[in-house]
Amino acid sequence: MKLSPVILLLITTFVLITVAVFAALDLPFRWVFFLTVFGQTLLIISVFRVLKDDYSTDKTFEDFYEDHPMGQEK
Q1: Three-class SS state of 65
Q2: pLDDT tens digits for 7-48?
Q3: What is the extent of the structural domain holding 21?
Q4: Is pLDDT at 1 greater than 70 in this prediction?
Q5: 63 in any annotated domain
Q6: Does a structural domain hold residue 74?
Q7: Domain count, the chain
Q8: What is the chain's alpha carbon radius of gyration, rounded to the nearest angstrom?
Q9: Which of 28, 40, 52, 57 has the fewest CB atoms below 10 angstroms from its CB?
């Protein structure tokens, strides 16, 4: 099953937020350590997948921001 990069980033964010909650609740060190290593691995995989994703757009730097076009009339 191939996950989209956005879904992978959401899972990574959830895991790393869980690490912070577990650390704040003083759960055993082994759980916090395991989730930290797992979260860091997911983060590296997520960054790699985002950078290698086959995404293209027709926008250029002249378009600037879509919600606030500079020098263009709508």
Answers
A1: strand
A2: 999 999 999 999 999 999 999 999 999 999 999 999 999 999
A3: 5-51
A4: no
A5: no
A6: no
A7: 1
A8: 19
A9: 57
Please list the alpha-helical segments (H only) found in 3-55.
5-24, 29-52
Global confidence as pTM: 0.69
Residue 65: inside a domain: no
Angle, CA 47 vertex, CA 44 and CA 49 arms, to 5°: 105
Q: State how far Cα 55 lies from the chain centre.
A: 16
Kindly state whether residue 10 falls inside one of the protein's structural domains.
yes
- Two tokens at 40? 């860091």
d(C-alpha 55, C-alpha 70), whole Å: 25
Gap between the Cα atoms of 44 and 36, Å rounded: 12
* Rounded distance between C-alpha atoms, residue 42 and residue 12, angstroms: 6
